[in-house]
Amino acid sequence: MKIMTLNVNGFRKNASDEENVPDKIRLDYMRKIKKLIDKVVINKNDIIILQEIPHNLKKNGKRYWFDDALYNSFNEMFREYEILRPKHLINSLHCTVAICKKESWGQLPKDVLQYDTGYRYGNKFVELQCGDVTLLGVHMPVNNDMWDDFLIPALIDAPYTYVVGDFNANEKRGPMSDKPKKIRECGYNNLISSNIITFYSKKRETSIDNIYINSKITLKNVAVKVVDTNLTDHALCILEYEYLS
Fold first, then answer.
1. In 3D, which of 169, 159, 109 has the Cα closest to residue 136?
2. Alpha helix ranges (H) inside 48-193
3. Which residues neighbour 161 within 8 Å (Cβ) at sequence distance 6 or greater?
């Protein structure tokens, strides 16, 4: 089984938030990332969490408007896979999804995360299950509210097997530097060291993507890889191990 995470940066390669990348170029990167996923999602229970999938809003300066074009293109391009979206998907610029083989993973029947009435940050979480394996896929902002009100309370007593995604938290520096330790205090071990680069910004390189595993879990024949695909500004992070279903 492979557990993977990749922030696709809205299919804009390494463009910054201020740059307006035409849809034609974004569709080209979407196709290239589709080819990448075809190569890594091979086994029945392989799964990859993708962050920053273009959803139904666009932004130009301070203006927002509804636009489902890229989201619909994504759904069509990946139709051969199971696309597991947030159960409480709200209007958003981007959303987090999971891609896997059909009839393998599914939504966790009961939310462990406790949402508020407006499902704040509902576009950023997926809670999933495959047999006795449970997974929380995340895209955390540089924002204490989402950590303190949603993620950390959900992790107390370590209910998931894995917590996977873009955490925007480097424990060596930055405003979220205390967050990896808080996840460990909830009963998880990070599989990617803080000195391994996972984000290739034009301004700086840092380590913010990770795969956390419940500290009570023991795996067999484990390999962890961090790969620069040159298709986005984040690394593809891979945990591969022997899965006995």
1. 159
2. 69-77, 144-146, 152-155, 179-185
3. 132, 133, 134, 135, 213, 214, 217
Report the distance separating Cα 107 and Cα 242, nearest Å: 23
The 10 Å CB-count burial string (b at 16+, else e) for 82-115 is ebbbbbbbbebbbbbbbbbbeebbeebeeeebeb
Tell me the pLDDT tens digit for each residue of 153-197.
999 988 899 999 999 999 999 999 999 999 999 999 999 999 999
Confidence of residue 244 (pLDDT cuts 50, 70, 90): confident
110-148 pLDDT tens trace: 889 999 989 999 999 999 999 999 999 999 999 999 999
pLDDT-above-90 percentage for the chain: 86
Crossing angle for the helix pair 69-77 and 23-40, to the nearest 10 degrees: 30
Q: How far apart are CA 52 and CA 70, in angstroms?
A: 12
CA atoms of 61 and 65, how far apart (whole Å)? 11
Q: What's the count of helices (H) and strands (E) in the chain, helices before strands?
A: 5, 16
Taking the alpha carbons of 214, 128, 223, 174 in that order, is the dihedral positive or negative? negative
As a whole number, mean pLDDT of residues 65-74 equals 94
In total, the chain counts a number of residues equal to 245
Q: Token pair for residue 75?
A: 């759904």
| pLDDT at position 245 over 70 | no
What's the whole-model pTM score? 0.96
Token pair recorded at residue 49 = 């969490």
